[in-house]
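To whoever is on call:

I kicked off a structure prediction for a single chain this morning and the downstream step that reads the tokens threw a length-mismatch warning. I double-checked the sequence; it's 138 residues and nothing unusual in it as far as I can see. Pasting both halves so you can look.
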Amino acid sequence: GGRVRLVTIDPDNDDGPAREGGTEIRWRRSDGDRELARKLVHVSLAGPVAEMLYTGDPYHPGLVAEWAADWRDAWEAAELLLPDERQRLAYLEQISLELYRRLNDESQWAALAALADNLLAHETLEREEIEEIFGEWL
């Protein structure tokens, strides 16, 4: 559905002190608004879930200050899918658990760890660098 242009853990001072990092994705818009919303939810929660796995701290992504923007992005994207707030909360928690299980799979873990290690070393990775890191797993 999309192509990653950039991943960074370097805060952008233009965004204020709340930004811890970011991901730029070029999305294909042909899938429709609901499908794009589902993808945005997954992408928004994938960062916090990956960090949970990398650090070994499985916190609720809605309760960690550093993940507040990610949770807010997921919450806003999911509003199109589920206007009812209780259903939306349950959906986001379900997706978080699914991502946790998927990324915790041994076959995914090596790629996730390699990406995290490279982000820690370089702070920002562009598409070509990400493709190189994931090359042996794709």
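Update from on-call: the warning came from a stale cache, not from the record. Cleared it. Sanity check on the structure: The two ends are 16 Å apart (CA to CA).
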